[in-house]
Amino acid sequence: MPRRANASGPRAPVPTAPVPTAPVPRAPAPRTRRPRSQLGLLALLTPLVVLPAFAAPPAGEAAFIAENDAAMARMMKDMDIQPTGDIDRDFVAMMTPHHQGAIEMAQAVLRHGKNEQLRRIAQEIIVDQQQEIAAMQLALGQPAPPSAPAPTAPGGAAPTAAPAAATAPSGTHSHAMSMSHHD
């Protein structure tokens, strides 16, 4: 009886022919060496570009940023409410500090900003946000908060402002002469 080949036994290696390969053309290497004059100029200019990024802001800007950061932190903390189950009250409870944050940011611009157009917009924001806070509280049957005058001159001078709810009927507010950040 002839012997059968064992499938699990060692196999003879299969000879393979080498595959010819063509050389791959390469692009010339980019020039990585810069002339010494360019390196010297780069060394001189780097501090002029990099150092201002790490420098402290001007004194007026530092005060503005500090006030703005404080207003934002207070707003975010005050908006973090425990839901009561009353959607309307929860909405007003979150929107009031949101609007108050906008008022405080606008007041910081009035204290530190120089652009007259932006200062007028900041004044409008203060009045609009006070009116919206009052309208929301009146809609819930709560008394309107007392309005506070906004400082309009550097140094904190504060002329009287329009009463918060005097210009808009209860539950409505007018944006005819103002720009709203919600539009």
From TrEMBL:
Pfam families: DUF305. Residues 153-176 have a biased composition (Low complexity). It comes from the Bacteria. Residues 1-34, 141-183 are annotated as: Disordered. InterPro entries: DUF305_CopM-like, Ferritin-like. Gene3D superfamilies: 1.20.1260.10. Residues 12-28, 143-152 have a biased composition (Pro residues). Residues 66-138 form the DUF305 domain. This is DUF305 domain-containing protein.
